[in-house]
Design brief:
The protein is of the alpha/beta class and about 475 residues long. It has 3 domains: about 35 residues; about 375 residues, TIM Barrel (Alpha-Beta Barrel); about 60 residues, Golgi alpha-mannosidase II (Immunoglobulin-like, Sandwich), CATH 2.60.40.1180. Helices cover about 35% and strands about 15% of the residues. The protein has 15 helices and 18 strands. Strands 1-2-3-6-7-8-9-10 form an 8-stranded parallel beta barrel. It has a 6-stranded antiparallel beta sheet with strand order 11-12-13-18-15-16. A two-stranded antiparallel sheet has the order 4-5. The longest helix has about 30 residues.
Length: about 475
């Protein structure tokens, strides 16, 4: 009897241990799958946030950024785009001013030159400047727990000069007439100006295979949700036709091309491209170089060259614009808020760049440490309000089942008026895109809510409306 009791006790213990192990395994699985893969439905209402880890905080680490991820929910962010997280090549690394760090004689000054994120030395490792792979995983997990997806900034056009491929696979690179590996070149053979990187040659089948394997690693092993692909238009389109289906076969992912070429969004290739023409048009209007009719011309051009379900990214700033062309205030001045609102209500997905939410007023250094002062001011509540509308109104949907866009007539070339609608829901944008007071015939009649002011408003047929310089209204039913 004692032996029988002991046997039953032993079997019970073993069963309990198996149950505990199974529970732990299930827990890990639930942790990994707690956020369903990104879908077309998610993209309809999404806002994308570009995270500059180096400059986001004084520490410049994953850990510090991760602490603020829950706050991004207040802004309606659905996708976090991390600027390149990979180790940076030390050979030929650049310093402020664009020259090589090696030319700086003072060791302390030379140490400040951290190089460009886009001069990658290893596509499967983490830049120690930002932390560890465990820190990265914590960031990803935190984002997923908060209902946000994370995409990596991928650099397929070139590598840094320290990348092991330069020694192991020199055939992966572009060479000049005497067999030397070159930096990226223009069509006429002159340098693009990116001397800190070596140009990749996609005639090499080996390169294609290696690049795909490295991209798959981050999806299958780390669970990321897609990629923003740097200068995607400089890489052969047939590479993307070969690669993206293989990536999507592993997981539903989001693909953003730093490009404008419509062919990159054909079929099931990239989900979104850059709305560069829209951005440039906003800059021109803000500077008084063009009037509101320029926006109409740009949107008409987009309608002709892109398919109805193509998504363009709308932005008033990003890492390149801020560092090289100026802050939002420098480029847009008093027009900034009207343009920000336009980037949200126009067809497309709005972008928030690190620091924009904190009224960033300086150009961030690109090749050395800088810091964003994270103090909420004027822009945060505006982004919060615009984000709520973008997240909840079917009239602002984009993608597979996009809302309609209709230009509304008015009698003033300096005033932009359009409406978007879907499922009987309407959003109307009216804006004086000039630095002088303007009058216009009301483009729509009825009772509305002036969304940004939360005030009732009524327009009657034939009514004349006056708008102050850069004044805008977002009307909802």
């Amino acid at each position: 009897m004692k032996k029988l009791i002991a046997l039953v006790f032993l079997i019970t213990i073993i069963a309990c241990k198996k149950e505990v192990k199974q529970t732990e395994a299930n827990s890990v699985l639930e942790e990994q799958t707690e956020l369903k893969p990104i879908s077309a439905k998610d993209l309809e209402t999404a806002i994308i946030y570009e995270a500059n880890i180096r400059q986001y905080s004084k520490e410049g680490t994953f850990k510090q950024f991760t602490k603020d991820i829950p706050q991004l929910k207040q802004l309606g962010v659905k996708v976090i785009w991390l600027m390149p997280v990979f180790p940076i090549s030390q050979t030929k690394r650049k310093a402020t001013g664009g020259d090589f760090a090696s030319k700086i004689e003072d060791p302390k000054e030379r140490a400040k030159a951290l190089g460009s994120y886009y001069a990658v030395s290893d596509f499967k490792k983490i830049n120690p400047e930002f932390g560890t792979i465990e820190d990265f995983r914590s960031l990803l997990k935190t984002a997923h727990k908060n209902g946000m997806y994370v995409i990596l900034d991928w650099v397929p056009n070139h590598t840094g000069w320290d990348h092991t491929w330069l020694k192991t696979n020199p055939e992966f690179y572009t060479k000049n007439a005497i067999g030397e590996i070159t930096d990226p070149l223009n069509d006429d053979g002159t340098s693009v100006g990116w001397a800190d990187v070596a140009d990749l040659n996609y005639d090499s089948e080996g390169l294609r295979k290696a690049m795909i394997e490295d991209m798959l690693y981050w999806i299958t092993e780390e669970g990321i949700d897609g990629f923003r692909c740097d200068v995607a238009g400089s890489v052969p389109t047939d590479f993307w036709q070969e690669t993206i289906p293989q990536l999507r076969a592993k997981k539903d992912i989001f693909m953003l091309a730093e490009a404008w070429e419509p062919e990159l969004m054909k079929g099931d290739l990239f989900d979104m491209a850059y709305g560069w023409d829209r951005h440039h048009t906003m800059n021109h209007i803000a500077k008084g170089e063009k009037d509101a009719t320029a926006w109409t011309a740009t949107t008409q051009k987009d309608a002709e060259r892109y398919e109805a379900d193509d998504i363009l990214m709308n932005f008033i700033t990003n890492h390149d614009e801020n560092s090289w062309n100026g802050t939002v205030k420098e480029r847009m001045g008093d027009a900034a808020e009207a343009m920000l609102a336009l980037s949200y209500v126009a067809p497309g997905m709005p972008l928030i760049y690190s620091g924009q939410e904190y009224d960033m007023s300086h150009r961030l250094k690109f090749f050395e440490k800088d810091e964003i002062i994270r103090k909420k001011g004027k822009t945060w509540p505006i982004l919060e309000k615009l984000g709520k509308l973008k997240n909840t109104s079917s009239a602002l949907h984009v993608g597979k089942n996009a809302a309609k866009y209709k230009q509304l007539l008015n009698n003033n070339k300096n005033v932009l008026t359009f409406e978007r609608h879907k499922n009987g829901v309407y959003v109307t944008y009216i804006a004086n895109l000039s630095n002088k007071e303007q009058t216009l015939n009301v483009p729509t009649v009825g009772e509305f809510i002036d969304y940004m002011k939360n005030e009732k408003l009524e327009y009657k047929d034939g009514e004349i409306v006056t708008l102050k310089p850069w004044e805008y209204k977002i009307l909802i039913d």
